[in-house]
């Protein structure tokens, strides 16, 4: 009975909440083919992305900072494009006027032709967010005017299943974060592939730090370490390719014990847990931007 209920709920989630108008998760400019042998140093164990091959990537800036966090463009339930990031990025910083979001960026230092800056109108942190353990580390940012889509700016799809069903799949995290623990953010977008680890192993490695298998997932190499997100990568997407070839937002970079340390895989917000919450907070554009 319980299993039956669970399956029905899962189906209604993927067909109802997740039905999305328009395309998502497909790039015009294709990314590098993932090859597990090419591991040059960056993002920690990754490499520079092909410019604009991850068109849902958002650079978030607080006040005068040149980088604060990253985020992802997704389509809300009303069809408007919103930004999803980590709640800890906006903790104690929820005045929308303090924030700017840049899309179409590859190099942070150069003013690129496809780059565009948006003001923020509304910041919605998940009410369950807890700074001590980083539970429910997800927030929605609505821009002050509608985000224009083009070859360099596209939303990623929402995940349709719990990451437990993807254990072992190599997914990609992208960001401008430090390439070594304690380092500075880099200029150009980098990416690194990491396999999803089973919750039971994440719990064994990380429960002393507050790993919660309901709202988190972990990824990386449990034994070797060497690939990870790092400082200034908070809020960036952890994306997996689905069987249709579209990229889905499965995780949001949340926390880690150091960066790429053996035995301490990186932890991501489990986006699947928050699909209903994202839906509930994007189904009406009342007072918000109108689709143009
Ligand atoms: C799709 O778009 C229509 C109108 O453009 C809107 O009413 C509807 O809520 C949207 N549905 C989803 C799931 O985006
Ligand atoms: C998930 O966490 C709960 C509570 O800590 C624990 O009882 C359960 O065994 C965990 N499940 C897995 C698969 O690790």
UniProtKB/TrEMBL annotation:
Domain annotation Peptidase S1: ranges: 43-283
Pfam families tied to this protein: Trypsin
GO BP field: proteolysis
Claim: Disulfide bond is one of the keywords in the record: yes
InterPro entries found in the cross-reference section: Peptidase_S1_PA (IPR009003), Peptidase_S1_PA_chymotrypsin (IPR043504), Trypsin_dom (IPR001254), TRYPSIN_HIS (IPR018114)
GO MF annotation terms: serine-type endopeptidase activity
Swiss-Prot/TrEMBL keywords: Disulfide bond, Hydrolase, Protease, Serine protease, Signal
Superkingdom per UniProt: Eukaryota
Signal peptide residues on this chain, from the entry's feature table: 1-19
Protein's UniProt name: Peptidase S1 domain-containing protein
Native source species: Mytilus galloprovincialis
């Amino acid at each position: 009975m319980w299993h039956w209920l669970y399956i029905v709920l899962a189906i209604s989630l993927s067909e109802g909440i997740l039905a999305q108008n328009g395309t998502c998760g497909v790039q015009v400019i294709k990314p590098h083919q993932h090859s597990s042998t090419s591991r040059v140093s960056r993002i920690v164990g990754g490499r520079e992305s092909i410019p604009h091959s991850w068109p849902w990537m958002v650079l978030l800036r607080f006040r005068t900072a040149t980088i604060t966090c990253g985020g992802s463009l997704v389509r809300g339930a009303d069809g408007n494009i919103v930004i999803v990031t980590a709640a800890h990025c906006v903790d104690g910083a929820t005045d929308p006027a303090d924030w700017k979001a840049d899309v179409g960026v590859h190099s942070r230092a150069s003013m690129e032709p496809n780059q565009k800056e948006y003001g923020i109108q509304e910041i919605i942190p998940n009410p369950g967010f807890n700074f001590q353990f980083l539970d429910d580390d997800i927030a929605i940012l609505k821009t002050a005017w509608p985000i224009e889509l083009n070859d360099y700016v596209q939303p990623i799809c929402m995940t349709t299943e719990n990451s437990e069903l993807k254990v072992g799949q190599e997914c990609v995290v992208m960001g401008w974060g430090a390439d070594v623990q304690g380092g500075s953010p880099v200029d150009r977008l980098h990416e690194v592939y990491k396999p999803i680890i089973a919750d039971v192993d994440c719990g064994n490695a990380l429960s002393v730090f507050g790993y919660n298998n309901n709202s988190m997932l972990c990824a990386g190499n449990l034994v070797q370490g060497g690939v990870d997100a790092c400082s200034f990568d908070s809020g960036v997407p952890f994306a997996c390719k689905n069987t249709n070839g579209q990229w889905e937002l499965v995780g949001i970079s949340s926390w880690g014990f150091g960066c790429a340390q053996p035995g301490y895989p990186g932890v991501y917000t489990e986006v699947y847990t928050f699909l209903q919450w994202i839906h509930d907070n994007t189904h009406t554009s009342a007072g918000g931007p109108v689709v143009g």
